[in-house]
Protein backbone atom coordinates (compact mmCIF):
# COMPACT_ATOMS: atom_id res chain seq x y z
CA UNK A 1 0.00 0.00 0.00
CA UNK A 2 1.08 3.36 -0.86
CA UNK A 3 0.79 6.17 1.60
CA UNK A 4 -1.17 9.14 0.47
CA UNK A 5 1.24 11.58 2.01
CA UNK A 6 4.89 11.53 1.49
CA UNK A 7 7.12 12.60 4.27
CA UNK A 8 10.17 14.51 3.41
CA UNK A 9 13.12 14.96 5.65
CA UNK A 10 12.13 18.56 6.45
CA UNK A 11 8.66 17.49 7.67
CA UNK A 12 9.90 15.01 10.26
CA UNK A 13 9.04 15.80 13.87
CA UNK A 14 12.03 16.92 15.87
CA UNK A 15 12.22 16.81 19.67
CA UNK A 16 11.90 20.18 21.51
CA UNK A 17 9.52 23.08 21.91
CA UNK A 18 8.23 25.52 19.40
CA UNK A 19 8.84 29.24 19.73
CA UNK A 20 5.16 29.87 20.56
CA UNK A 21 5.25 27.33 23.40
CA UNK A 22 8.37 28.95 24.87
CA UNK A 23 6.85 32.46 24.67
CA UNK A 24 3.64 31.24 26.38
CA UNK A 25 5.64 29.65 29.20
CA UNK A 26 7.70 32.83 29.70
CA UNK A 27 4.54 34.97 29.82
CA UNK A 28 2.86 32.61 32.31
CA UNK A 29 5.95 32.60 34.54
CA UNK A 30 6.07 36.41 34.41
CA UNK A 31 2.41 36.71 35.42
CA UNK A 32 2.87 34.14 38.19
CA UNK A 33 6.05 35.85 39.45
CA UNK A 34 4.34 39.26 39.49
CA UNK A 35 1.37 37.88 41.42
CA UNK A 36 3.62 36.19 43.98
CA UNK A 37 5.71 39.35 44.41
CA UNK A 38 2.62 41.52 44.98
CA UNK A 39 1.27 38.97 47.45
CA UNK A 40 4.58 38.81 49.33
CA UNK A 41 4.82 42.63 49.58
CA UNK A 42 1.21 42.83 50.84
CA UNK A 43 1.92 40.09 53.40
CA UNK A 44 5.11 41.82 54.60
CA UNK A 45 3.30 45.17 55.04
CA UNK A 46 0.43 43.48 56.87
CA UNK A 47 2.84 41.64 59.15
CA UNK A 48 4.67 44.88 59.96
CA UNK A 49 1.38 46.65 60.69
CA UNK A 50 0.20 43.80 62.93
CA UNK A 51 3.50 43.81 64.82
CA UNK A 52 3.29 47.57 65.42
CA UNK A 53 -0.33 47.31 66.59
CA UNK A 54 0.54 44.42 68.91
CA UNK A 55 3.43 46.36 70.43
CA UNK A 56 1.22 49.43 70.91
CA UNK A 57 -1.47 47.26 72.55
CA UNK A 58 1.16 45.89 74.95
CA UNK A 59 2.26 49.43 75.85
CA UNK A 60 -1.36 50.41 76.50
CA UNK A 61 -1.91 47.34 78.69
CA UNK A 62 1.21 48.12 80.74
CA UNK A 63 0.10 51.75 81.09
CA UNK A 64 -3.38 50.68 82.23
CA UNK A 65 -1.92 48.28 84.79
CA UNK A 66 0.36 50.99 86.17
CA UNK A 67 -2.46 53.57 86.32
CA UNK A 68 -4.76 51.09 88.09
CA UNK A 69 -2.08 50.29 90.64
CA UNK A 70 -1.26 53.95 91.27
CA UNK A 71 -4.88 55.14 91.62
CA UNK A 72 -6.05 52.14 93.69
CA UNK A 73 -3.23 52.62 96.23
CA UNK A 74 -3.17 56.40 96.46
CA UNK A 75 -4.38 58.34 99.48
CA UNK A 76 -5.86 61.36 97.65
CA UNK A 77 -6.84 61.89 94.04
CA UNK A 78 -8.17 64.68 91.83
CA UNK A 79 -8.74 64.78 88.11
CA UNK A 80 -9.63 67.70 85.87
CA UNK A 81 -9.17 68.32 82.17
CA UNK A 82 -6.21 66.29 81.05
CA UNK A 83 -4.40 65.82 84.38
CA UNK A 84 -4.86 63.25 87.15
CA UNK A 85 -3.13 64.30 90.38
CA UNK A 86 -2.78 62.02 93.38
CA UNK A 87 -0.66 61.23 96.40
CA UNK A 88 1.06 57.90 96.75
CA UNK A 89 3.89 58.62 99.13
CA UNK A 90 4.87 61.65 97.04
CA UNK A 91 2.77 63.91 94.90
CA UNK A 92 2.27 62.38 91.45
CA UNK A 93 0.37 63.19 88.28
CA UNK A 94 -0.58 61.61 84.97
CA UNK A 95 -0.98 63.78 81.87
CA UNK A 96 -0.30 63.83 78.16
CA UNK A 97 2.59 65.72 76.63
CA UNK A 98 3.59 65.70 72.95
CA UNK A 99 1.57 62.55 72.23
CA UNK A 100 2.92 60.65 75.24
CA UNK A 101 1.14 59.57 78.40
CA UNK A 102 3.43 60.75 81.20
CA UNK A 103 3.59 59.70 84.85
CA UNK A 104 5.29 62.48 86.83
CA UNK A 105 6.70 60.94 90.00
CA UNK A 106 8.06 63.72 92.22
CA UNK A 107 9.59 65.57 89.25
CA UNK A 108 10.75 62.49 87.34
CA UNK A 109 8.80 61.88 84.14
CA UNK A 110 8.10 58.30 83.07
CA UNK A 111 6.56 57.62 79.64
CA UNK A 112 3.72 55.13 80.12
CA UNK A 113 2.84 54.92 76.42
CA UNK A 114 3.17 56.98 73.26
CA UNK A 115 1.08 57.87 70.18
CA UNK A 116 -1.83 59.14 72.26
CA UNK A 117 -4.13 62.10 71.82
CA UNK A 118 -6.98 63.68 73.69
CA UNK A 119 -6.46 62.59 77.29
CA UNK A 120 -9.48 63.50 79.39
CA UNK A 121 -9.82 62.91 83.11
CA UNK A 122 -12.53 63.49 85.69
CA UNK A 123 -13.20 62.61 89.31
CA UNK A 124 -16.66 62.39 90.84
CA UNK A 125 -18.37 60.18 93.40
CA UNK A 126 -15.16 58.31 94.24
CA UNK A 127 -14.74 57.38 90.57
CA UNK A 128 -11.75 58.38 88.44
CA UNK A 129 -12.48 58.37 84.71
CA UNK A 130 -9.60 58.50 82.26
CA UNK A 131 -9.96 58.31 78.48
CA UNK A 132 -7.47 58.68 75.64
CA UNK A 133 -7.14 57.84 71.98
CA UNK A 134 -4.16 55.89 70.64
CA UNK A 135 -2.85 56.09 67.09
CA UNK A 136 -2.16 52.65 65.61
CA UNK A 137 -0.51 51.63 62.36
CA UNK A 138 -2.21 52.48 59.06
CA UNK A 139 -3.92 55.53 60.66
CA UNK A 140 -6.22 53.36 62.76
CA UNK A 141 -7.13 54.60 66.23
CA UNK A 142 -8.38 52.99 69.39
CA UNK A 143 -10.19 54.57 72.33
CA UNK A 144 -9.15 53.52 75.84
CA UNK A 145 -11.42 54.32 78.78
CA UNK A 146 -10.73 53.57 82.43
CA UNK A 147 -13.19 53.93 85.27
CA UNK A 148 -11.48 53.33 88.58
CA UNK A 149 -13.47 53.22 91.78
CA UNK A 150 -11.46 54.75 94.58
3D architecture notes:
By secondary structure, this protein is α+β, with helices and mostly antiparallel strands. The protein has one domain (22-149). Helices cover 36% and strands 39% of the residues. The protein has one helix spanning 19-72, and strands at residues 76-80, 83-88, 90-97, 100-105, 108-114, 116-124, 127-135, 141-149. It has a five-stranded antiparallel beta sheet with strand order 1-2-3-4-5, covered by helices on one side. Strands 6-7-8 form a three-stranded antiparallel beta sheet, covered by helices on one side. The protein starts with 18 loop residues before the first helix and ends with a strand.
Layout of helices and strands:
Elements (H helix, E strand, L loop, with lengths): L18 H54 L3 E5 L2 E6 L1 E8 L2 E6 L2 E7 L1 E9 L2 E9 L5 E9 L1
Antiparallel strand pairs: 1-2, 2-3, 3-4, 4-5, 6-7, 7-8
Structure class: alpha+beta
Q: How is the largest sheet built, in terms of strand order?
A: 1-2-3-4-5
Portion in beta strands: 35-45%
**Rg on CA atoms, Å:** 33 Å
What's the number of helices?
1
Number of strands: 8
Largest sheet: 5 strands, antiparallel
Total of domains: 1
Task: Give the low-confidence spans.
Answer: none
Gross geometry: rod-shaped
Amino acid sequence: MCSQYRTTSSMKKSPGFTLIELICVIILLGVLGTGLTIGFVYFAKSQQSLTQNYQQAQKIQIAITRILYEIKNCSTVSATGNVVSYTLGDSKSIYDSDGKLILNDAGTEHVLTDNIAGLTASYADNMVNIAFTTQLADNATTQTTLSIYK
